[in-house]
Design goal:
The chain is α+β, with helices and mostly antiparallel strands and 183 residues long. It contains 3 helices and 9 strands; from the N terminus they run ααββββββββαβ. It has one domain (29-177): Calycin beta-barrel core domain (Lipocalin).
């Protein structure tokens, strides 16, 4: 009897550890001092966005002409297709993901998964009234994006978003300004 109880206990502990791990993988954060846009209208946010600037990280390193396209899936999640031109390889790369709201659907706090149960924070912290320009924060001060519906962004909006990012604590001197010179 002790033998089978031991294996039940081990199995239960393994199951509990798995649940805790998966639960922690799906929790997302927003940088301290940042707040997500509220109210947020996902229907107006869907469509194509051009990446104007970003804090570089390994999955986008060396990419130009980066775009992100958001659309609704039948199950209520959001389909994400990121596309960019690898200047070293001279070829297009594409990554697909799914996103969903972290809490309320009228707040610009989402979580995005490119890899199974692992999610990362995607926080819209500024957007203009016409949903043409957006400032998006990741979970930490390591990820930041300036997005536009066009291949450029007016200087006054760019400066406003840079100031907002700096107020949160981002080092905007490290931004990569993305070229859009490929079709």
């Amino acid at each position: 009897m002790a033998f089978s109880n031991k294996y039940i206990w081990i199995g239960g502990a393994a199951l509990a550890a798995s649940v805790i791990l998966l639960s922690s993988c799906s929790k997302t954060k927003i940088p301290e001092g940042a707040s997500a846009v509220k109210p947020f209208d996902l229907n107006r946010y869907t469509g194509k966005w051009y990446e104007i600037a970003r804090l570089d990280f390994k999955y986008e390193k060396g990419l130009s002409n980066v775009t992100a396209e958001y659309s609704l899936n039948d199950d209520g999640t959001i389909r994400v297709v990121n596309r960019g031109f690898d200047v070293r390889k001279k070829e297009w790369e594409e990554a697909k993901a799914k996103a969903k709201f972290t809490d309320s659907q009228d707040e610009g706090r989402l979580k995005v998964s490119f890899f199974g149960p692992f999610y990362s924070g995607y926080n819209v912290i500024a957007i203009d009234a016409d949903y043409r320009y957006a400032l998006v924060a990741g979970e930490s001060l390591d990820n930041l994006w300036l997005l536009s519906r066009e291949k450029s962004m007016p200087e006054e909006i760019k400066q406003d978003y840079l100031e907002k990012a700096e107020t949160v604590g981002y080092d905007t001197n490290n931004l990569v300004w993305v070229k859009h010179d490929q079709n």
